[in-house]
Amino acid sequence: MTVHDLMRELAEKAGHATTVTAGAIGSLYSLFTQNPIGFICALVAVASFVMNWYYKRQDNRRAEETHQRHHILIQQRERNKV
How far apart are CA 57 and CA 68, in angstroms? Predict the structure, then answer.
């Protein structure tokens, strides 16, 4: 694992934790104060969750494609050795 991968993973985890925490605090705040700000916080939390999910899905797809290409290259090298 490279430093770049580690930093990206840490940023993803921090982003998820921040999203969940902000959404929960905003929602609880709106329950106790009857303020519409909590609804906005909940919308932002859901939007952030969807965005994080989308980009993680794209990252997994790219990793799978890279893995497949690497696997194909290894098979081609083995064929060329014989």
Answer: 17
What is d(CA 52, CA 60) in angstroms, rounded to the nearest whole number? Answer: 12
pLDDT, tens digit (0-9, with 9 covering 90-100), for 2-60: 877 777 777 777 777 777 787 778 777 777 777 777 777 778 778 877 888 888 888 88
End-to-end CA distance of the chain: 32
User: Could you tell me if 71 and 38 are in contact, meaning their C-beta atoms sit under 8 angstroms apart?
Assistant: no
Is the pTM higher than 0.70? The answer reads: no
Q: How far apart are the C-alpha atoms of 65 and 67, rounded to whole Å?
A: 5
